[in-house]
Structure formats: structure tokens, C-alpha cells
Amino acid sequence: MKIATYNVNGINARLPVLLQWLKDSEPDVVCLQELKSPDEKIPKEEIIKAGYKAIWHGQKRWNGVAILAKEHLEIQEVGRGLEGEPEDEQSRYIEAMINDILIGCLYLPNGNPAPGPKFDYKLRWFDRLSTRAKDLLDQDIPVLLTGDFNVMPTEKDVYKPERWIDDALFRPEVRQAYHKIVAQGWTDAIRKLYPEETIYTFWDYFRNAYGRNAGLRIDHFLLSPQLSEKLRNAGVDKQVRGWEKTSDHAPVWIELEV
Questions:
Q1: Which residue ranges does the record assign to the Endonuclease/exonuclease/phosphatase domain (predicted)?
Q2: Is residue 69 helix, strand or coil?
Q3: What was the pLDDT predicted at 81?
Q4: Taking the domains of the chain in order of start, what are their residue ranges?
Q5: CATH architecture, domain defined by 2-256
Q6: Which of 57, 100, 101, 59 has the alpha carbon at shortest distance from 79?
Q7: Residues with catalytic function
């Protein structure tokens, strides 16, 4: 099974790119982030024509997450949002059971400027995610958490790390929060297969970042022990970042023997 994550940076604005990539890559499951669209404006018909079922948790202008699954797969929404902050209305998390795998699709807050209220919200969101992640592991079922985590876990994951010391994506508190989740028993899929390689998933639109390969690795797959042993391949479709009118992220994917 090929499972991908892709921050599309506006599903309607990037729809031609998304559809072309789906045709070329043929993932079985896709987790999308930053839809920037309310539910009623999700391009449902185009997604169906591309051969996918979908569930989504949209939001006007910002945020939004979705999970797509090929027609032959069973997809059932399990829940949306994270417990712990009832007044939080940002659409950043959705879960689905696809066949026998529980998939959590997430779009973690950026957190800038840091310090500040947005950074505090990011850390609280990480705490809520950590609680949910532990609950999922305790269920002893195949689970993966994937999406835009907005964190570079180590210096290997960022071009010129010294320039990012005070950024909310790289501050020590944020990296510690990520590693705290991983330490529960999750496997970072990319680093399991490519422990030392320079791998990026995001390149800013400015300063020719893509051309210089001045990127960040902020889109991650975390696998439960049941899925970690089934991991066979992983990669980044970097070329998609070079397409016209594309997202500033590239799709990231893994292949599981299930």
C-alpha cells in the first residue's frame, strides 16, 4: 500500500497540480493539509473522477485536512479534532480507518512569531497530539500519523540550521515535543530508511530556495510498531515542487507491505 502526505497550500488553487500528481504517482491513500477551503467548496467531483473517495475537515481561508483513498479501499471517518481545548475551532486533524489501518492526518500550527500566543498555541497543540498518540499506541493496532508537523527534528533536516535557531519550527521546545512523541514508540519512517541523507519536503517561494535546494524536512510519517516492521520504501516527489503554480511542499510517500 502506498500512502502519501501532501500540504497542497490551497486545494482549489493547486487542483491541476494535485490531479496530475495523483495520476502520475497513483498513491492508494493521500493525506492533504492546508486545504484553505470550506467543506462546501472542496472539489469533490474532481477527486471522485480521479478515482478517490474522500473525507475532509475544511475551513474557510486557512487550515483544513483531508484523507483520500482509492475506490477499492474501505474508508471510515473515526474522528476530527483533538481533545483538550474545546474552544479550538481550527481544522487541523482528522482520523480514518482504511481497511485495518488507522490513519491520523494532521496540520500542526506554524507557531511564529515566537515567543508569543501563536507559539504557545503550537506547544499546547503538540501536548494534545502527544496525548492522542499515546492513546492510539495503547490500542495495539496498526496506526500512522502523518502530515505537516511544522518541525525540523534535527539539524540534518534543515538547510543552514544556524539561521533557524529562533524560528518556531526549530526552537528547542518544539523539537523536544516532537521527540517526546516519537519516544512513545513511534518510528520516523523517512529516517528509518534514510538515517543520514539530506532530505527536504518544503522549499520557500523566496530567494530561489528550490533551485538552491535550501529546504526543510517538516512533513513526516510516524508509524506504530505494527507498521514499522512492514515499511518497505519511502521517498519525496521533489519534482512536483518544480511544477508551475505548485505548493511550497512536495508530496512525501511510504510503501507498506500489507
A1: 4-249
A2: strand
A3: 97
A4: 2-256
A5: 4-Layer Sandwich (3.60)
A6: 57
A7: 107, 148
